[in-house]
Amino acid sequence: MLPQHTETIIFDLDGTLRHSIPNADETMYGFAVELGLSNNPGCRRAGAQWAHYYWAQSAELLEDVKKYDRLNGTFWKNYARRYIEALGSNGLDAAELGSELAQRMDTEFSPRSVVHPEDIETLKILRDEGYHIGLISNRTSPCHEECEELGLMPYLDFAYVAAEVNTWKPDPAIFERAFEITRSQPEHMLYIGDNYFADIVGARRAGIFPILVDPRDVFPQAECVKISAVSDLLAMLR
Predict the structure, then answer these.
(1) pLDDT attached to residue 88
(2) Residue ranges for the chain with pLDDT beneath 50
C-alpha cells in the first residue's frame, strides 16, 4: 500500500527511465554462454543480481576503482572475471574467460538509449496532476544534456547525479538535496528504481517509500512493492 498524501515522486535514470537496447545484463550473459558457461535461468538471474549488487557501491566496486584508478580495459577485464566467478565458472579459468568476455563486450556491445513513450506520457500526467517530479542517478557525470536529448527534462523539476552531491546510493544522504528542493518530507515521497541494492535500500534508509521496477523478475523475493513498468504507477496512485 502506498503512503497517503504523496507530494514528490523521484526516479532513477538508468534501467528505470532510460533503457539500453539491447540490455547489458542479457548481452553479457549471452556472450558468457557462447564462451562455454552453462546456460540456465537461475544462472542468468544470478548474474543480473550480482551486477546490480556490484554497482550499488559494493565493497568490490570500491576496491576495484581504487586499484585500477579509472574504468579502463583492465578494470573491465577484472569486472568480467568477477562476474564469471559469481556465476560459477564450471571449471573454466575465470580470468581467461573474463578477458574474452570483456573483449566481446567492448567490440560487440553497442546499445542505443531509449525512453519508452508510455513512460514519457506517465511523467506528463504526473506533472499535470501536481506532483513534484525528480530524478536522482548514481552516475559520476551530470545527466542534464542526455535527459534533454531523451525528452525527459520538460517533466522534471530537478535532476542530479551522485557525483554532484558527492554521495552514492544506497547512502541516504544522496536524497538530502531533494528534500531541500521540494520541501517535502520523506514520508510524502516515492522513489522508483530498478536496482534493489541501491534504490530500494537507499530510499528506505532515507525514510522514502520505494518501488522496484523489475520487468525481468531479477528480484523475485524482493520485499517491496514491485511494478513491471513505470507506467504502472498511474493505476497505483488512483
Answers:
(1) 83
(2) none
C-alpha cell at 31: 556472450
Give the domain ranges of the chain. Answer: 8-20+113-236, 24-108
Q: How many CB atoms lie within 10 A of CB 17?
A: 27
Q: How far apart are CA 124 and CA 156, in angstroms?
A: 9
Q: What is the topology classification, in CATH, of domain 8-20+113-236?
A: Rossmann fold (3.40.50)
User: Nearest to residue 84, comparing CAs of 105, 63, 70, 66?
Assistant: 105
Spell out the residues 6+ positions from residue 204 whose beta carbon is closer than 8 angstroms to its own.
210
User: What is the percent of the chain where pLDDT is above 90?
Assistant: 90
Model confidence over 165-178: pLDDT tens digits?
Answer: 999 999 999 999 99
pTM, 2 dp: 0.95
Looking at the DSSP bridge assignments, the partners of residue 212 are 193, 226
CB atoms within 10 A of CB 1: 6
